[in-house]
Design a protein that fits this description.
This protein is mainly α. Helices cover about 80% and strands about 0% of the residues. A two-stranded antiparallel ribbon has the order 1-2. A hairpin with a 2-residue loop joins strand 1 and strand 2. The longest helix has about 70 residues. The C terminus is likely disordered.
Length: about 325
């Protein structure tokens, strides 16, 4: 009985060890399988992201290459547009800076953009705060009405706004654009900031007011830092919108020294039926790179501002 018992226990232990080893091998196989699936999924995601980035970057790459191409290479239909089939030349970039007032256009755009951003924030922040905090039945309809103003096409308004500019004696000056551009930046900025301000609890301001701050002081010290992502969204949106606007800039300013990039570059680099394509591409790259850099620098806050406004509004 003792030998049988010992053999039975030994067989049982051996079977248990075998089962444990088999289970361990199966678990190891499953881990390797899931690890391979995970690696393949990540590789697929990264591959798709790289391909999407390359597709999005192709126009920019084409502009960079075209800016340094010689005329024979650019106009040859047999040449590859992404390669230098002829030696590269900086002459067209030099022409942009030496034979056109391109730097003047850039400075004008910066002045107009900075002024419009400041005016937009000065008007949009109080308006959005009032509509978000004051409980009035007309608050929501007024916010929608303000946003609807942004949807009116500029082509329907530039004639009447031209009369306003002429009445103020601002024609052919940067002030004409500084006065008019807030009419298209303020409405959507108010709409964005309303949604973001609604995400800030009223208790934050009330506690600050209990501590002795006025409503303005509570807004500046407690609410304003919390809505900073929304402010960044408004700044980026307003600046890019004013930098790319064409209709108003063309209607209000005809003097070259007062033009901005959106109108000055085409005016100087499209002369009759002659297009200075390489210089046009160079101007596109030079103006786009700083804006893209600043946009990506504040991308997280910019996205946060838009998404919070979309959810809470």
């Amino acid at each position: 009985m003792t030998e049988r018992s010992e053999r039975s226990e030994t067989a049982t232990a051996t079977a248990a060890e075998t089962a444990a080893a088999t289970a361990a091998r199966e678990m190891a196989g499953l881990r390797r399988k899931y690890a391979r699936r995970h690696a393949a999924a990540r590789a697929g995601v990264y591959t798709a992201a790289v391909l999407a980035a390359l597709v999005c970057a192709l126009p920019f790459l084409w502009s960079v290459v075209s800016a340094f191409k010689m005329n024979q290479d650019l106009y040859d239909p047999e040449s590859n547009p992404f390669y230098f089939n002829e030696p590269a030349t900086p002459d067209h970039v030099t022409f942009l800076f030496s034979d056109t007032p391109f730097l003047t256009f850039v400075v004008n755009s910066l002045i107009v953009g900075a002024a419009v951003v400041a005016i937009t924030l000065l008007l949009a922040l109080p308006a959005a705060y009032s509509l978000a905090r004051l409980d009035r039945p007309w608050g929501t309809p007024m916010g929608i009405a303000i946003f609807m103003v942004y949807l009116v096409p500029p082509s329907l308004l530039f004639l009447s706004l031209t009369r306003v500019v002429v009445a103020l004696h601002l024609e052919d000056t940067l002030w004409s654009m500084i006065v008019v551009y807030p009419t298209i930046t303020v409405p959507v900025s108010v709409w964005l900031l309303i949604g973001f301000l609604k995400a800030v609890p009223k208790d934050v301001e009330e506690q600050a007011m209990v501590d002795g701050y006025s409503r303005l002081g509570a807004f500046l010290r407690t609410v304003l830092p919390l809505v900073f992502p929304g402010i960044v969204a408004v700044v980026v949106f307003s600046f890019t919108l004013t930098s790319s606007e064409f209709v108003y800039a063309l209607a209000f300013v005809s003097a070259s020294p007062e033009m901005v990039v959106s109108t000055g570059v085409p005016t100087q680099l499209v002369r009759g039926d002659v297009f200075f394509w390489q210089s046009l591409q160079a101007s596109t790259v030079i103006t786009a790179v700083p804006i893209a850099f600043l946009f990506n620098l504040f991308l997280d806050r910019f996205v946060t501002g838009f998404t919070m406004g979309a959810v809470k509004t």
